[in-house]
């Protein structure tokens, strides 16, 4: 799942070497903290958050088989 977030993010940004994904696992949830170069924040978020929403939708769809709630936070 972490690789999925990282692959999608790297395809969207101008500085793919600065994409970092940190997985924070809690009791009932899994949070992927995505950080990118400051110049790429707009590309990850998109107009009115559409890219971020699409990224979260793909991750949620991929995590259907897990028992935990999976979210993506852009930091």
UniProtKB/TrEMBL annotation:
Protein name: RNA-binding protein KhpA
Highest taxon, organism lineage: Bacteria
Similarity annotation: Belongs to the KhpA RNA-binding protein family.
Annotated function: A probable RNA chaperone. Forms a complex with KhpB which binds to cellular RNA and controls its expression. Plays a role in peptidoglycan (PG) homeostasis and cell length regulation.
Keyword Chaperone: yes
Main localization of the protein described in the UniProt heading: cytoplasm
Keywords: Cell shape, Cell wall biogenesis/degradation, Chaperone, Cytoplasm, RNA-binding
Assembly behavior: Forms a complex with KhpB.
Species: Brevibacillus choshinensis
